């Protein structure tokens, strides 16, 4: 339970490195006790959060590796299913479904990684747009990168 708390706390303080560190310590416990102890009520939520982290960091190969390690019943859990559906949308390039997915998160702790995923998507779109267009009107770029205002687009560009 203490490692689960540490994982959730790292999200609350927006510390990705701490999340990864704490998750790996917790994952050992989950794997070593599988079939011996009943699963923690938080296990699938936390495993789903890790999948979200991997998506947000664009580490798709690791996402699939982690998915393969899950027991088959885990795939039916809403937290795992949510991450899998987002990954499918990410791979298909249906970014609107990804950004709209923020309203359908299975738990409020997922919002942190949804925000990071939105940044990853914007970076992907910006990279592709930079290769595809010599010139792009500001309003078109704003819509393409899914910004609500021109000011937010300009802030993004200046970063």
TrEMBL record:
Domain PCI, chain residue ranges per copy: 17-159
GO cellular component terms, A-Z: cytosol; nucleus; proteasome regulatory particle, lid subcomplex
Taxonomy, superkingdom: Eukaryota
Coiled coil start-end: none
GO biological process: proteasome-mediated ubiquitin-dependent protein catabolic process
Gene3D superfamilies per record: 1.25.40.990
Family (UniProt): Belongs to the proteasome subunit S14 family.
PANTHER family per record: 26S PROTEASOME NON-ATPASE REGULATORY SUBUNIT 8, PCI DOMAIN-CONTAINING PROTEIN
Name of the protein described by the UniProt record: PCI domain-containing protein
Annotated source species: Aegilops tauschii subsp. strangulata
Lineage summary: Eukaryota, Viridiplantae, Streptophyta, Embryophyta, Tracheophyta
């Amino acid at each position: 339970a203490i490692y689960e708390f540490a994982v959730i706390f790292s999200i609350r303080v927006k510390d990705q490195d701490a999340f990864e560190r704490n998750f790996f310590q917790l994952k050992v416990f989950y794997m070593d006790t599988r079939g011996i102890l009943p699963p923690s009520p938080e296990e699938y939520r936390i495993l789903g959060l890790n999948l979200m982290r991997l998506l947000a960091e664009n580490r798709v190969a690791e996402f699939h590796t982690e998915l393969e390690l899950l027991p088959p019943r885990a795939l039916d859990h809403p937290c795992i299913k949510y991450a899998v559906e987002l990954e499918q949308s990410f791979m298909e390039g249906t970014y609107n479904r990804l950004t709209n997915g923020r309203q359908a998160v299975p738990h409020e702790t997922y919002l942190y990684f949804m925000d990071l995923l939105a940044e990853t998507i914007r970076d992907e779109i910006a990279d592709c747009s930079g290769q595809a267009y010599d010139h792009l009107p500001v309003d078109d770029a704003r819509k393409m990168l899914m910004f609500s205002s021109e000011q937010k687009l300009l802030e993004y560009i200046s970063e």
